[in-house]
Each structure stands twice: as structure tokens, then as C-alpha cells.
Amino acid sequence: MSQPQRAPFVNKRFWLFFFGGMFFLAGAVALYVWFALRPLPAAPEAAQALQSDARVSVQQTSYGYDFIPLGTPKGGLAFYPGGRVEYTAYAPLMRQIAEFGYRVALMWVPFGLAVTAENKAQEPIAAHPELAWAVGGHSVGGVAASTFASGDSRVRALVLFAAYPRMDLSATTIPTLALFGSKDGVLPPEEARQRARLLPKGAEVRFLEGFNHSSYGAYGPQPGDQAATVEKLAGWRIVSREVVAFLEKHLQP
User: Fold this and answer.
1) I want to staple 157 with a disulfide (CB 3.0 to 4.6 A). Which of 75, 169, 175, 242 is the partner?
2) Which of helix, strand or coil describes residue 53?
């Protein structure tokens, strides 16, 4: 008597296991990427800062949010968020800068990574060409800001928080303010001093006592960072004063 043929059944089981394994692997990779790229969420005070009041009007735009001061703006600041940080986390600080008379564009970037959209600042600048513009950014956002500033003649000044350029800009002369923190565990002060050599000639470099890497936004704690000794709200006041004093010097006629 002949034996039953089992090959088709064996082949079917093999392909079921094969495709099941592939789907499982794809799902695992997708889950890992989602967790790896998921932005650090903004704290509740960020949502509060997105509400308009008598001093600052907040408008959602195609590129993010605009903070518009009462009266005619003195100039503009286009701001790139830090890497893997929900961009609205910077709303409290951007709002404070706007209260001093500057139109601030807080920009959304894909995947929370500004290096994927380094030319994003073209959008607010093109929308309001009547203003003198600075660009700025935090951490990886500062890398994007410095790259954009080095290649666009419309940019009058550069503002960096815990950031430095990707390339050597020491031979350029674009006015630059670079703020670093004494408690920064992601970009420690000793490394920041080394990287500051890449900044444009004449850059104003400040090390803020008690600031850590996440002191500039309403989020945290950030992996690898130290604990800040300056409370967030007090820190934003310090930074906004530094930025506004700098913009007053370089965006005014």
C-alpha cells in the first residue's frame, strides 16, 4: 500500500510559520521605532501658553504656531525644537519673548527631528518678509538653525540653546547668542566649551548657572540629563531676557 503524500501539508505549515515570523518581526521593528522616535511630551503649562490674551495673540499656522505681540513687531524669531521633544513644550519661553515685541514662529518638524526639515524657517520668513529675522533652536534644533542661518542671507542673527553648528562657522560673522547650562548632562560644559569653537566669530557665549539640558522647555526629565537647580519659570525669564537683549542689538535698524 502506498504511503500518503505529506509534502503539501509540510510546505503549508512552513509558509505559515515563515509569514507569521515576518509579521511578528515587522511589528516588533515598528514598535521599537515608535518608542525610539516618540517625542518627550509637553507639560501642561505648554498648553496654557498657547492661549491668546491681551498681550500676545497665538495663531496656529501651516508650520506650527505664531506668537504675535501687541502692536507692530520689532522683528521675528523662527525657532526649531529640540530632538524628540514635543515642539509645543517651548511655547512658554517663546511666549515670553513675544511679550517683548517680537513675532515668534515655533515650528513643527517631522518625527520631532529638526534635521529632517532644516529649511523649515523659510516658511515664516517668506510669510512675513517685512520683518528682520533671527533663527534659533534647542539642541538638535540648534544644529538645524545654524545650518539654515549659514546658507540664507535673510537671517540677521542666530540663537542657540545647548547647541552648536554641525560645520565650522568660525570664519563667518553672523551675530550669534549661544546659551549653555552648568548642569547639562547631555551636553556637559566641558564639551560645550570645545564645541563653541565652531560658532561664528564674535559669538556671545553664556553658561547659565543651574540650567540643565531641558531647562529651555516645558518637558522632562530627559534621559542622561542632570537635575537643574533653577526652577523652570525662573529659568525662562532669564533666557527670555538674554534673547531679547540680543535681538535688540541685532534686529533693530
Assistant:
1) 175
2) coil
What residues have CB less than 8 Å from 186, skipping those under 6 apart? 139, 162, 213, 222, 224, 225
Query: Cell numbers at residue 49, please?
Result: 501658553
Q: Could you tell me whether strands 76-80 and 133-138 are parallel, antiparallel, or unpaired per DSSP bridges? A: parallel
Read off the C-alpha cell for 167.
Answer: 560645520
What DSSP character marks residue 85?
Answer: B
For the stretch 134-171, pLDDT in tens is: 999 999 999 999 999 999 999 999 999 999 999 999 99
Q: What is the rounded distance in angstroms from the CA atom of residue 162 to the CA atom of residue 206?
A: 10
Q: In the chain, at which residue ranges do the beta strands (DSSP E only) sit?
A: 56-61, 64-69, 76-80, 103-107, 133-138, 155-161, 176-181, 204-208
- pLDDT one-digit tens code per residue, 167-211: 999 999 999 999 999 999 999 999 999 999 999 999 999 999 999
Its pTM stands at: 0.86
**CA 202 distance to own-chain centroid:** 24
pLDDT exceeds cutoff 50 at 29: no
Q: Using alpha carbons only, how large is the chain's radius of gyration in Å?
A: 23
Residue 248 to residues 168, 188, 241, 242, Cα–Cα distance (Å): 26, 29, 10, 10
Q: What is the pLDDT of residue 36?
A: 46
Q: Residues, the chain, total?
A: 253
Contact 93, 240 (CB under 8 A): yes
Q: For residue 37, what are the CA distances in angstroms to 30, 66, 110, 235?
A: 10, 25, 10, 27
